């Protein structure tokens, strides 16, 4: 059971929530209370006055990879598990966004709400933005109580909350009733009663104004704990009983403002009441008895691996956004449409990156890939009114447009503005599914960069998007493979795939599915047919993909990535051939290519022999080029590895044969050049202002794969070395 | 089955706002937002108006620049959205101020606009030696031109003095941005025509101009509009703030001989100078054009009867369609305009009705692929997927990968000749 307690700020929600939790715990229930208020004092009385680390502070100060659930969950009175979302200082940031981030954290760290008998959400205010509405979303609160006092503004807020509840009231009602937190015995309760009658809700409990609350607070306890025999405590035990036994839920009805004003302000004067409710027991038990802090224990078996991008894991600045990464990935699946929920600029920016890769592919390789030239994307074109009033209707309309294309699946990716205002894509999907049950609609976690960087978006789109299409009942097939972790922004991704497909064909092996590039819903459905995955890269992304598929789907992944250069190709062919018992075919392939390779080495070796090579690159694997250089008789003198957002693991087969410096400081370059005097400097960009003239050339971030990947440069270097060291045009700078 | 066009893959007012400030040579945008909003704009700005001679990301590896020389960013993340970007804003402002810019425009990304950080407070507290403006909300999904003009107004309000100049001369070119394809070539061609008539170009507002030029914006006698969409709200602003008149070309932008003649004649009439020298230049262009077309037509009968499609702003589409039809005898099969100038749009529809081509209005090019397609690189590439041969002439961004070393123009006399060259060679199958 999950209960949301809503009410205007300062109305006493936290006191009511904490006492309700205490009463529920006393009734033997396992309770989790989550405070969703930036002032983070919801659970204070359950924890003996202790202020706990809020989820948002914890997130801010702890790298994602080190975050643990038990640091934000604390055990209080009668085993109640307590958490506080926290939030920014008044006047800065966005507290509603904070609630969304907190729930995302809980989800990521594997908090299973279903292991509790009752979850109590103590939520600020009158549903001011999407963030505060999180507990109303499907899957969170199934019961809603609204706290009000007799004051107009409090009832006004309650009315607004009912509006909010109505917006989220799909597939059943969740309102259990009102709780009147009385401001005093002399207050006129008629407005509340009339409000309740008009919105057709029962007043489930009246909590009297009482000095006992102040006294209990002084003792840093709830009334239920501090004054267990009091009338006030009994009120909460009654409320707890109602919570547990209630089966009647009401639709959310609200009054328009004129009616509400008339109803409350034109009321009869308050009537005198007896003060019987204010009796105080002579002695309160347990004063100042602070129990030692208990930590919430998470069963390790409950935790699934979390697949995070390198930047997210190490709290580096995020490069690009998850929205863009997700869009670049889902648009690789033919026969699908991706709905981008956000302003037009977000879709444009993300699509320009896709188009740019498509243009380069066409210019350099003369391959026109429809997915990258005309990505099937529809933007919801979020405008000012959507930003203010929420975008569900707008999103449903855009999803309908996508459905009208009759695709095989629709993906939904969301932007920062959508995430900040707390739009709930699940609610929109729920609505559209009822109208178009035959077409799968799959949301990919993104919210712009709120849920991570570009790589995280790619990961999420692979795992949640493409992964959701897989059919687990397919019959396995032999002699076929899946391809993992191709780079959609690489201009040679398609030609590299073709090279690999050709080599595999020579060994009688087919491609089953490309995960996820230039693929189709049918291919993805049949993903589980293949007995082996081949990673295009074993960089951070490639490794993560392999781990994900191994853990969740049980298909092994080859150790070696698409090979670049001769040795890698030999080892790769042998690994694949061994797996499929095609060793003879594999050796035939190797022999054929070896003869051609040796011929090429002879052709270029005499020009390049003895030349000194230095490499300055973002790439973390340069063996393909080092191998070619050594085979050509060149001398590799130093390899300098720059920090790169997408990888962190430098590897080489030649550990002792040249100097290596990782995390290279570019400021050292000139000194190294002066000291080592290379004949040729290779890098990913042509450097400027070198200390002396020397030959420089470019190596691609994503080299061409296959037996000749490294040697492909031999011809270029042999020619380059004959060119003048400094070209004349370089003297023509302004 | 899939969406047959990229009609919703177009930039909006956010990009327009950034391009307005990046269009000033000695000003810089400081983006308060995530890097996802930075990379595209940093690349476009530097590509459209190169200001550095080097692209190695290592040279821009300091914090906030992320390997690009333009559009430094506060790289907001989830935590900043919750807690505000105070620390980063306090840190980035002095870093950018040290780069020697004359103006910094702090612009919120769409997401940052929602958290309500008080940019003006940060700017004031930073006490920088450089003037700054704050654009807290560039609009959501509004037209690019809308964001562009609003930001131009912010800039002019901040830097251009209100006092009346003693003597006025020349014109300001208005309604063109660095986001326009071939903007430099077009401005050069229009400047040549104006100068031929003795009209000095005071500045081109936020398209390759300097702050000093903008400060003297009211020295000009007239604002001359190029693309009406990019000046429709600027004109009343200029009238109100600087008491300046503006000339709106009735036939749209100066694309094709006829619209160019109309454009220069209109300007000269207001300034009371003779358009004859410019018309002479255009006449020379017409003669060259005739020479080329005469030979081509004699052998092929073309370009008459060749079909064409146009996708772009109304102010460009109107004169282009009119010229291609009336001057070259080509027939429109698709004319797609997205939220362009209302008057040009209206006139364009009337024109299509008049020539019995009303069906071409907003028609999908994929349904009948024209012989010649005018549009962005994306429009052209998308049609290439069909495998059907046609000639694509890029008139707007995104452009393909072709590097233009010699500045091209599609406006003015030289622009008309360039288009004719491309059409003739395209139709000839070259």
Automatic annotation (TrEMBL), chain A:
Keywords: 4Fe-4S, ATP-binding, Iron, Iron-sulfur, Metal-binding, Nucleotide-binding, Oxidoreductase. Signal peptide: none annotated. SUPFAM superfamilies: Helical backbone' metal receptor, P-loop containing nucleoside triphosphate hydrolases. GO terms for molecular function: 4 iron, 4 sulfur cluster binding; ATP binding; metal ion binding; oxidoreductase activity. The keyword Hydrolase does not apply. InterPro entries: Nase/OxRdtase_comp1 (IPR000510), NifH/chlL_CS (IPR030655), NifH/frxC (IPR000392), P-loop_NTPase (IPR027417). Residues 269-295 are annotated as: Disordered. Its cofactor is [4Fe-4S] cluster. Gene3D superfamilies: Nitrogenase MoFe cofactor biosynthesis protein NifE, C-terminal, Nitrogenase molybdenum iron protein domain, P-loop containing nucleotide triphosphate hydrolases. Pfam families: Fer4_NifH (PF00142), Oxidored_nitro (PF00148). Residues 321-721 form the Nitrogenase/oxidoreductase component domain. The keyword Oxidoreductase applies. Belongs to the NifH/BchL/ChlL family. This is Nitrogenase iron protein. It comes from Desulfocicer vacuolatum DSM 3385.
From TrEMBL, chain B:
Gene3D superfamilies: Nitrogenase molybdenum iron protein domain. Residues 14-427 form the Nitrogenase/oxidoreductase component domain. It comes from the Bacteria. It holds the Pfam family Oxidored_nitro. One of its GO terms (molecular function) is oxidoreductase activity. This is Nitrogenase molybdenum-iron protein, alpha and beta chains. It comes from Desulfocicer vacuolatum DSM 3385.
């Amino acid at each position: 059971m999950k209960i949301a307690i809503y009410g205007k700020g300062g109305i006493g929600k936290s006191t009511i929530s904490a006492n309700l939790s205490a009463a529920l715990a006393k009734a033997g229930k396992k309770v989790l209370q989550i405070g969703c208020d930036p002032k983070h004092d919801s659970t204070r009385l359950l924890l003996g006055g202790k202020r706990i680390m809020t989820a948002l502070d914890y997130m801010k100060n702890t790298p994602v990879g080190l975050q643990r659930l038990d640091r934000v969950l604390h055990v209080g009175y009668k085993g109640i598990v307590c958490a506080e979302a926290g939030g920014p200082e008044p006047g800065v940031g966005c507290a509603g966004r904070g609630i969304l981030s907190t729930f995302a954290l809980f989800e990521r760290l594997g908090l299973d709400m279903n292991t509790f008998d009752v979850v109590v959400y103590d939520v600020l205010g009158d549903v001011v933005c999407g963030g505060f509405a999180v507990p109303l979303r499907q899957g969170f609160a199934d019961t809603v109580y609204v706290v009000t006092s007799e004051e107009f503004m409090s009832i006004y807020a309650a009315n607004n909350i009912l509006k909010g509840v109505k917006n989220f009231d799909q597939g059943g009602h969740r309102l259990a009733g009102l709780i009147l937190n009385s401001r005093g015995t002399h207050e006129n309760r008629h407005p509340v009663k009339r409000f309740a009658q008009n919105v057709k809700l029962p007043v489930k409990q009246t909590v009297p104004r009482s000095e006992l609350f102040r006294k209990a607070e002084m003792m840093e306890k709830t009334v239920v704990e501090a004054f267990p025999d009091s009338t006030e405590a009994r009120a909460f035990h009654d409320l707890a009983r109602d919570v547990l036994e209630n089966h009647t839920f009401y639709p959310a009805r609200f009054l328009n403002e004129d009616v509400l004003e008339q109803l409350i302000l034109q009321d009869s004067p308050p009537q005198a009441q007896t003060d019987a409710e204010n009796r105080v027991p002579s002695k309160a038990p347990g004063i100042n008895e602070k129990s030692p802090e208990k930590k919430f224990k998470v069963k390790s078996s409950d935790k699934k691996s979390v697949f995070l991008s390198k930047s997210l894991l190490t709290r580096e600045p995020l490069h690009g956004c998850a929205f863009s990464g997700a869009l670049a990935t889902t648009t690789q699946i033919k026969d699908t449409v991706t709905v981008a929920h956000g302003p037009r600029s977000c879709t444009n920016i993300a699509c320009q990156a896709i188009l740019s890769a498509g243009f380069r592919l066409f210019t350099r390789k003369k391959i026109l890939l429809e997915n990258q030239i005309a990505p099937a994307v529809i933007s919801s074109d979020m405008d000012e009114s959507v930003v203010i009033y929420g975008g569900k209707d707008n999103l449903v309309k855009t999803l309908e447009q996508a459905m009208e294309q009759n695709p095989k699946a629709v993906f939904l990716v969301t932007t920062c503005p959508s995430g900040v205002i707390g739009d709930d894509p699940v609610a929109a999907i729920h609505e559209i599914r009822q109208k178009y049950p035959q077409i799968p609609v799959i949301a990919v976690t993104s919210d712009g960069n709120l849920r991570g960087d570009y790589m995280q978006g790619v990961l999420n789109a692979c795992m949640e998007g493409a992964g959701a299409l897989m059919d687990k009942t397919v019959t396995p097939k032999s002699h076929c493979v899946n391809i993992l972790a191709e780079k959609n922004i690489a201009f040679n991704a398609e030609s590299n795939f073709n090279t690999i497909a050709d080599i595999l064909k020579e060994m009688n092996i087919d491609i089953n599915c490309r995960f996820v590039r230039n693929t189709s819903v049918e291919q993805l459905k049949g993903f589980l047919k293949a007995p082996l995955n081949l990673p295009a890269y074993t960089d951070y992304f490639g490794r993560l993909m392999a781990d994900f598929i191994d853990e969740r789907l049980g298909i092994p992944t080859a150790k070696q990535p698409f090979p670049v250069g001769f040795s890698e190709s030999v080892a790769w062919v042998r690994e694949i051939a061994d797996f499929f018992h095609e060793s003879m075919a594999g050796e035939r392939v190797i022999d054929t290519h070896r003869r051609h390779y040796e011929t090429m080495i002879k052709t270029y070796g005499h020009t390049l022999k003895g030349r000194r090579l230095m490499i300055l690159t973002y790439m973390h694997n340069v063996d393909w080029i080092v191998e070619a250089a050594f085979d050509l008789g060149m001398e590799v003198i130093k390899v300098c590895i720059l920090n790169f957002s997408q990888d962190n693991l430098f590897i080489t087969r030649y550990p002792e044969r040249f100097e290596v410096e990782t995390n290279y400081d570019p400021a050292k370059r000139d000194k190294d050049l002066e000291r080592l005097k290379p004949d040729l400097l290779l890098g990913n960009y042509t450097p400027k202002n070198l200390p002396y003239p020397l030959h420089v050339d470019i190596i691609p971030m994503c080299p061409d794969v296959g037996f000749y990947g490294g040697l492909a440069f031999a011809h270029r270097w042999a020619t380059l070395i004959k060119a003048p060291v400094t070209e004349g045009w370089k003297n023509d700078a302004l | 089955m899939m969406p047959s066009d990229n009609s919703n893959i177009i930039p909006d007012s956010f990009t327009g706002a950034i391009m307005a400030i990046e269009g000033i040579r000695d000003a810089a945008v400081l983006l308060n937002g995530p890097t996802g909003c930075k990379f595209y704009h940093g690349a476009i700005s530097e590509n459209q108006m190169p200001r550095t001679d080097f692209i190695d990301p290592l040279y821009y590896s300091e914090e906030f620049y992320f390997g690009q020389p333009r559009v430094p960013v506060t790289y907001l993340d989830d935590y900043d959205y919750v807690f505000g970007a105070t620390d980063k804003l306090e840190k980035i402002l002095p870093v950018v101020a040290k780069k020697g810019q004359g103006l910094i425009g702090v612009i919120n990304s769409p997401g940052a606009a929602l958290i309500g950080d008080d940019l003006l407070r940060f700017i004031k507290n930073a006490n920088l030696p450089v003037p700054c403006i704050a654009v807290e909300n560039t609009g959501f999904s509004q037209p690019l031109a809308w964001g562009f003009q609003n930001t131009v107004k912010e800039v002019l309000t901040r830097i251009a003095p209100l006092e009346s100049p003693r003597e006025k001369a020349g014109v300001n070119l208005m309604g063109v941005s660095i986001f326009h394809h071939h903007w430099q070539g077009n401005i050069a061609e229009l400047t040549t025509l104006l100068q031929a008539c003795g009209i000095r170009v005071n500045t081109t507002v936020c398209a390759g101009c300097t702050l000093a030029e903008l400060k003297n914006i009211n020295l000009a006698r007239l604002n001359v509009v190029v693309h009406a969409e990019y000046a429709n709200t600027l004109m009343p602003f200029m009238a109100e703030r600087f008491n300046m008149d503006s000339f709106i070309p009735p036939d749209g932008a100066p694309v094709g001989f006829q619209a160019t003649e109309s454009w220069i004649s209109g300007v000269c009439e207001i300034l009371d100078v003779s358009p004859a020298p410019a018309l002479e230049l255009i006449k020379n262009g017409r003669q060259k054009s005739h020479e080329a077309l005469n030979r081509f037509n004699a052998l092929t009968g073309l370009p008459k009867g060749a079909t064409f499609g146009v996708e772009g702003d109304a102010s460009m589409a109107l004169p282009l369609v009119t010229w291609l039809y009336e001057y070259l005898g080509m027939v429109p099969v698709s004319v797609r305009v997205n939220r362009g100038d209302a008057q040009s749009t209206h006139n364009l529809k009337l024109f299509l009705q008049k020539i019995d081509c009303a069906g071409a209005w907003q028609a999908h090019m994929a349904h009948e692929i024209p012989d010649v397609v005018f549009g962005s690189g994306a429009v052209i590439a998308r049609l290439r997927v069909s495998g059907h041969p046609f000639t694509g002439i890029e008139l707007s961004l995104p452009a393909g990968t072709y590097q233009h070393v010699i500045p091209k123009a599609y406006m003015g006399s030289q622009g008309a000749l360039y288009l004719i060259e491309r059409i003739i060679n395209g139709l000839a199958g070259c």
